[in-house]
Design goal:
Order of helices and strands: EHEHEHEHEHEHEHEHHHHEEEHHEHHHH
Shape: globular
Bound molecules: magnesium ion
Helix content: 40-55%
Number of helices: 17
Largest sheet: 7 strands, parallel
Low-confidence stretches: none
């Protein structure tokens, strides 16, 4: 029996994970869950899964206590998240937290010797070297939860990297795949949130529309798989059916094809190395009909290039990339800046940054600096 803590249980990764574990009650026990502010939803989940601990955002503990009574332990905020993952009853932590808040609990979980499956890209982008280093030292699994990275991770477990010429990460291209640069300067928040193939939270949906999300996956792949950046390619694939490809040195290419359902990579990551039937619909390629592929346009999607620049600069640069992007995406969602201003804010913050060493102390410092810097850049644009 694997005993799991699910961080961000009311988000899209959290609810998909609960769906997956619900189907395998003899294999998984949900011991604890966390949510930011969705009190009603997290209490319903706590009752349905009979959890022992709930973490909720700062100041909301009493509201949860009122609904759940004394049988469930309630903790709050970022310290509460660390308490959940360090708990001796937990074997595996599922990190479905949004953005930078996910770093500290991942580090704490790995340090405490827990396996971690993470959908939180920011952790690997910002502190990839640190977290993969801790996982290695502690001998625990650090697994990506992602439609592209999970099947890559699964396949590469059984392959020497010497056999791999390159990996290819497909991106849907988002809602502005064929929009002109002029149009993209003017697009609204609602248009940017209208992703063609995936239903996700607002932050990752905007990151998908700018291709920042794919650039993050390039950086993640570098750390998760130990592949040099030139061996990681991005291709635009409109239908989101091919989720990753591995080109081997003999010229053969293996592709992973599935329907677009996040429950599958979560299922794969959780039951690895077994193959177990999942609740996911089978893929009907005849119904799909056509698969199309295009080169990404770095002029209209400069965020992808910024990711390559940041990982090349190394050290604290990816932390600045991530933090300034969070500020820029928030500002776009608050309709304070335009869509194409997102890469401008990130580019300017990266330009102004003096790269430091990539240890946690410098990363946290660079994160704070980048947020202030990006906020200043946003204000200057208004
Ligand atoms: Mg992905």
């Amino acid at each position: 029996m694997t005993r799991v803590a699910i961080l961000g249980s009311t988000g899209s990764i959290g609810t998909s994970t609960l769906d997956v574990v619900r189907a395998m009650p003899d294999r998984f026990e949900v011991v604890s869950i966390s949510a930011g502010s969705r009190v009603d939803e997290v209490c319903e989940q706590a009752k349905a899964f009979g959890v022992k601990r709930v973490c909720i955002g700062e100041g909301l503990g009493d509201a949860v206590r009122e609904r759940l009574g004394g049988s469930v332990e309630i903790v709050e905020g970022n310290d509460g998240l660390v308490q959940l993952v360090e708990d001796g009853e937990i074997d595996t932590v599922i990190n479905g937290l949004v953005a930078g808040v996910g770093i500290r609990p991942t580090v704490a979980a790995l340090e405490a010797g827990k396996h971690v499956a993470t959908a939180n890209k920011e952790t690997l982008v910002v502190a990839g070297e640190v977290v993969t280093g801790i996982a290695k030292t502690k001998g625990v699994r650090l697994v990506p939860l992602d439609s592209e990275l999970t099947p890559l991770w699964e396949t590469l477990q059984e392959r020497s990297l010497d056999d791999v010429k390159r990996i290819v990460l497909p991106a849907s291209g988002g809602p502005f795949f064929d929009a002109s640069l002029e149009t993209m300067e003017q697009v609204s928040k609602a248009e940017a949130l209208n992703h063609p193939t995936w239903k996700m939270g607002p932050k990752i949906t905007i990151d998908s529309a700018t291709l920042m999300n794919k650039g993050f996956e390039v950086i993640e792949s570098h750390w998760f798989f130990g592949l040099p950046i030139p061996k990681i390619s991005v291709i635009i694939h409109r239908q989101s059916i091919v989720h990753c490809m591995i080109e081997y040195i003999d010229g053969g290419v293996m592709a992973h094809l599935t329907t677009t359902d996040m429950r599958l990579p979560i299922h794969q990551a959780l039951v690895h190395p077994d193959k177990v039937p999942s609740p996911v619909e089978p893929l009907d390629l005849v119904k799909v009909g056509t698969l199309s592929f295009f080169e990404p346009d770095l002029e209209r999607f400069p965020c992808l290039q910024l990711c390559y620049d940041a990982i090349e600069a190394g050290g604290t640069a990816p932390a600045v990339l991530n933090a300034s992007n969070e500020i820029a995406v928030d500002a776009f969602l608050e309709e304070r800046i335009g869509f194409m201003d997102i890469p401008r804010v990130v580019g300017k913050a990266l330009e102004a940054h003096e790269v430091g060493p990539g240890d946690l102390e410098h990363i946290y410092e660079a994160d704070g600096w980048a947020r202030r810097e990006a906020e200043g850049i946003v204000e200057g644009m208004q």
